[in-house]
Structure formats: structure tokens, C-alpha cells
From TrEMBL:
The gene is LOC114339204. It comes from Diabrotica virgifera virgifera (western corn rootworm). PANTHER family: CILIA- AND FLAGELLA-ASSOCIATED PROTEIN 57. It comes from the Eukaryota. Gene3D superfamilies: YVTN repeat-like/Quinoprotein amine dehydrogenase. This is Cilia- and flagella-associated protein 57-like.
Length: 195
């Protein structure tokens, strides 16, 4: 005689402290974090599929879906550096893990903001205080393409948002100007604009 196995049928709830906490994956599927999983809920069939998180989901900071809907990015804090995991929503398998470079003097433990480029080829991330560094990663390889300082030269100001569009790469922040290596950003085909 085998023991019965409990399987979740429906998990509801929403975590308001997570940035980008709900997205449409398709016309029928909604992605959102709840408890120790990221749920993909089909609104027509009322069925769910799950991505299990490490550390019971307590370290989840950002949830993001790529513009082409082929990647789900999950950012988590760790004891040392923040980590981004890219998932394939069709197969529910981990595709890539994006780590910050180990050779840099990085002190932060989380990302302030992150966004995919319009073509879903690159992921742009900004680390939080005290570093405030912008990183551009290639999604298919998880490789660091470029990095630059993300706040003012005097170290003031915080990055709040990274709105990316077809031709404009812009950072919104509390105060001051941004100083970056524009050539390396332009090399990726992203126009750079400061506000």
C-alpha cells in the first residue's frame, strides 16, 4: 500500500514587497510569487504550475518576465552577492544563473532594479547601496557584457527604476546626474540618455 501524496492544487496570495510581483506570461497565464514558489496561474483552466525557490522564498526581491515571454528572471539575495536565475516558462527548467563578477569589490546584497532590453537579449541590473553599479548581462550565456557606475560622481542619489524602450536607455533616480561608460552601452545597441 502506498502513501497518498499531497500536491498543491491552488496557491493564492501576493507578496507586495517584491518588485514586479505580477506579470502576464500570455493572455491566459499570470506569474506571481506566493510563499516559497513562483506560481504560473492559468486563468481559464484554474490550474497552476510552480517554480520552487531557494530558502523558502524569503530572499526573493524581483520577478521579471522578458518582453518575448521566453524567460522569467528571479532575483534573490544571498549571504554574499545577489543572484539572478533565468527560467524557461515553457519547460519550467532553470536556463542560466547570473552572478556578479567575483573579481570586483562588491559590497551590496541585493539589486535595486533590473530590466530586460526590448529584444530580450540582455538583462540590465543595478546593484543597491553602497555600490550603485549598473551591469549588463547577455541572457543566453549569462556573461557580463558591460558595467558602469550608476549614481553621481560624489556618490549621492539612488537608482529607482530602469525603464527600457526600443531606443532609449534611461535611469530614474532621486537626484543628480549619472556618469557611465557610454561607449560600452552604445556598443550593445542601446541608446543612452541621462536625466
Amino acid at each position: 500500500m502506498s502513501l497518498p501524496i499531497l500536491q498543491p492544487h491552488l496557491i493564492v496570495g501576493l507578496e507586495p514587497t517584491i518588485r514586479g510581483n505580477i506579470h502576464y506570461l500570455s493572455d491566459d497565464d499570470i506569474v506571481y510569487p506566493v510563499g516559497c514558489v513562483v506560481a504560473v496561474h492559468n486563468i481559464n483552466t484554474k490550474k497552476q504550475r510552480y517554480i520552487k525557490l531557494s530558502e523558502k522564498g524569503k530572499n526573493l526581491t524581483h520577478l521579471l518576465v522578458s518582453p518575448n515571454k521566453k524567460l522569467i528572471a528571479i532575483a534573490e539575495t544571498t549571504d554574499k552577492l545577489p543572484v539572478i536565475t533565468l527560467w524557461d516558462p515553457a519547460l519550467f527548467r532553470k536556463k542560466k544563473t547570473i552572478n556578479l563578477p567575483q573579481d570586483k569589490d562588491i559590497v551590496c546584497s541585493r539589486y535595486a532594479c533590473m530590466e530586460f532590453t526590448y529584444d530580450s537579449k540582455f538583462m540590465v541590473c543595478v546593484t543597491a547601496e553602497p555600490d550603485w553599479t549598473l551591469y549588463v548581462f547577455k541572457c543566453d550565456k549569462g556573461k557580463l557584457e558591460s558595467f558602469a557606475r550608476a549614481n553621481n560622481l560624489n556618490g549621492t542619489g539612488t537608482v529607482v527604476q530602469l525603464p527600457l524602450s526600443l531606443s532609449i536607455f534611461m535611469k530614474c533616480y532621486d537626484d543628480g546626474a549619472i556618469n557611465t561608460n557610454k561607449r560600452s552601452i552604445e556598443r550593445l545597441g542601446i541608446a543612452f540618455m541621462t536625466v
